[in-house]
Amino acid sequence: MIVQPKIRGFICTTAHPQGCAQNVQEQIDYVLKQGKIAQGPKKVLVIGASTGYGLASRIAAAFGCGAGTVGVFFEKEAENKRTASAGWYNAVAFEKKAAQAGLYAKSFNGDAFTDEIKQKTVATIKKDLGPIDLVIYSLAAPRRQHPRTGQIAKSVLKPIGKIYVGQSLDVATNTLETVTLPAATPEEIEQTVSVMGGEDWEYWIDALTTQGLLNEGAMTVAYSYVGPEITRSIYREGTIGRAKDHLEMTARRLDERLHKIKGCALVSANKALVTQSSSAIPVIPLYFVLLNKAMKEKGIYEDCIAQIDRLFRTRLYASGPILVDNHGLIRMDDLEIRPDVQAQVQHNWDKLTDSNLAQLADLDGYREDFLRLFGFGLKGVDYNADVDPEQKLPSLSYP
Questions:
Q1: Shortest CA distance to 57 belongs to which of 367, 315, 296?
Q2: Structural contact between residues 280 and 10, judged by C-beta atoms closer than 8 angstroms
Q3: At 134, which CATH number?
Q4: Does residue 372 lie in a domain region?
Q5: What residues contact residue 397 under an 8 Å CB cut-off, 6+ apart?
């Protein structure tokens, strides 16, 4: 079938298998170009490994460090003339490239919140790899069924204590719109923390430590976001921010536990990027298009793989202690929050209108980044060619 992007609002309902494979290859090429990471890990578990920062982490570990990797994600295969999800095609492409490079790669497709997936993953690690050197937690999900209580929680992005009214970007029409977000209820705050906080991360570490599957000196890193003053009232001071507070509190607790094996637990505050989930968040896309414009003009823009490659090389596996801020965070958003960058973003934000939006914001870049998430718009891919949407993941068993 010929696969073209079908966009509904902030959602693309199709993905291109060859385009996703090319996107993975370009990330691999970037890491290889930087050279080997001499002190990098050799056995790595990535939870949330099929897109975004999680996928980039798996690529950096495998092709920068020569690591065997286990990836956990929740993606859809092709069915009834519908394409698979982009994350599925990404995982297929990664495993094929890892096999060609002689690297161990095993994937688990299922709900990472469940005890079942944890048990299957841990059993395979115990059988195939032995103790892990690095655990990356990069899970983003809209809902979670608690494995102990069975209760279903749904995350929301809302302010706490007051209504938020502000401008946002209508990504379908590239025009400004006013959004109003009601204040979160206590139950919504609690549910968002359940989904996006650190409890599941700790459950994963529990599952590994129970089986003795963390190596001496093992590290675990969860990904987070802080954000600028512009988004503070709905993000860091809102429901998601409350969940991030819980994530960081969990990191401190895990860090104390891992000291017993000379290991550590950290949270990396990464830069803002266009993702499938962030495109649906009010206000955030508008901030992105202004931020990307400023960073590109200053020559400091980083895409996903550049950010994670720098994290591995200059923070996690550089010589000397790992640099953190006063709150214990690795600040990989250091270029984003530079005063000159934020001053330009704020200046343009304050004078935005529909007539000058295209001039002040990187609208074309946003659309390109969005389409790339689904394998579209990559050089070297014939989008008029017939492709097979059914792609099998090598490490899974099929009837």
A1: 315
A2: yes
A3: 3.40.50.720
A4: no
A5: none
Range of the domain at 78: 7-140+193-280+300-337
According to the 3-state scheme, what is the secondary structure of 249-312?
A: HHHHHHHHHHHHHCCEEEEEECCCCCCCCHHHCCCHHHHHHHHHHHHHHCCCCCCHHHHHHHHH
Q: What is the arithmetic mean of pLDDT over 15-43?
A: 97
Half-sphere exposure of 152 (CA within 13 A, CB side): 2
- What is d(CA 98, CA 93) in angstroms, rounded to the nearest whole number? 9
CA separation for the pair 27, 320 (Å, rounded) = 27
Q: Say how far apart CA 158 and CA 176 lie, in whole Å.
A: 20
Number of domains in the chain: 1
CA atoms within 13 A on the CB side of 47: 27
Q: What is the pLDDT of residues 273-316, one digit of tens each?
A: 887 666 667 788 899 999 999 999 999 999 999 999 999 999 99
Q: Calculate ∠ Cα 56-64-141, nearest 5°.
A: 20
* Residue 398 reports pLDDT greater than 80: no
DSSP 3-state assignment of 170? strand
Bridge-based pairing state of the strands 214-224 and 264-269: parallel
- Does 148 map to a domain? no
168-178: buried (b, 16+ CB within 10 Å) or exposed (e) per residue? bbebeebeeee
Question: What pLDDT, on the 0 to 100 scale, is given for residue 279?
Answer: 66
Identify the band that residue 399 occupies on the pLDDT scale cut at 50, 70 and 90: very low
Which member of 53, 235, 317, 366 is catalytic? Answer: 235
On whether residue 362 sits in a domain, the answer given is no
Residue 197 in any domain: the answer is: yes
pTM, two decimal places: 0.96
Q: How far, in Å, CA of 232 to CA of 159, rounded?
A: 9
Angle at 185 (CA atoms; ends 182, 191), nearest 5 degrees: 115
Mark whether 104 is an active-site residue.
no
